[in-house]
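Title: Prediction job returns without error message
Component: structure pipeline
Severity: low
Priority: P3
Assignee: unassigned

Description:
Job completed but the reporter wants confirmation the result is attached to the right record. Sequence as submitted:
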Amino acid sequence: MRRLFALAAGLYAAPLWAQSVSMPVAGALAQGGQAGASALAGSAIAGAQPLPPRAVVTGATSGLGKALAVQLGRQGWRVALVGRREQLLQETAALVEEAGGFPLALAGDVADPESVKRHYAEIKDKWGGVDLALLNAGTPSPMDARKFDAAEVQRVMAVNVGGAANWMGAVLPDMLRQGKGRIAGVASLAAYRGLPVTGPYSASKAALATLLESTRVDLRGTGVQITTINPGFIRTEITKGQELPFMLEAEDAAARILKGIARGDRVISFPWQLSYPIRLLLKNMPNAVYDFVGQLIAEKRRASK
């Protein structure tokens, strides 16, 4: 049991799509390349030059977001790339284009509502909207509640929850109007319980997962689909230099996510070696046991600093 808790407790380091976006987009994801793009566009524009499907990926400068963008590019998508670091964003754009996609780099902060509005206005002006919004941008926070920092909590919430909410608010009106589209938000396996020495991150991912679930239920019957993504440990800038249990390369994680979207999954949790124990055991652990083991983990972390 202590081993299980130890595996889950480090999830703050993780960064942190039946029906899919629509049946044509599901086909595009499954087929890949220009064939997939043609399957989508051909169903919508008879007699016209087929247009590739459209996606926006936030947090696209590195890690999981970068891998998602490149793999969509490989499948022939138009991909709007959102991130704060412009040079890295341009590097991702070059990789998307090299892979066969059509990038649009948009440098800015997802936590800034005006920046998000400008970015979506540019996407809408060039492409008319998006079929898929992959809301991946996030920030970690190993905060110890014994040194509680309200500003740190607000900072993490502004990015991990507020950033996703800003983009949901931007894309949903057009998706609802067209009666199709998919929003996929990257939460975390850390969302299932409040993990020790990582309160802001666990709380933000739990809030995002709940927001996505509620939105999914509210939009039932509209044609707009919602997917919640709960990854475990992914090798990124955040986890650099760490060897964590069942850690996945970003490319592997991105492939799992896109396959889940093509299947029309409502929730995508992986890897199973972590997701099953956390969802079935840790989540249902009695509070007294959870608190005792959590205290041991917290003390171990404090001693290692």
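Comment from assignee: result matches the submitted record. Residues 2-46 have pLDDT under 50 and may be disordered.
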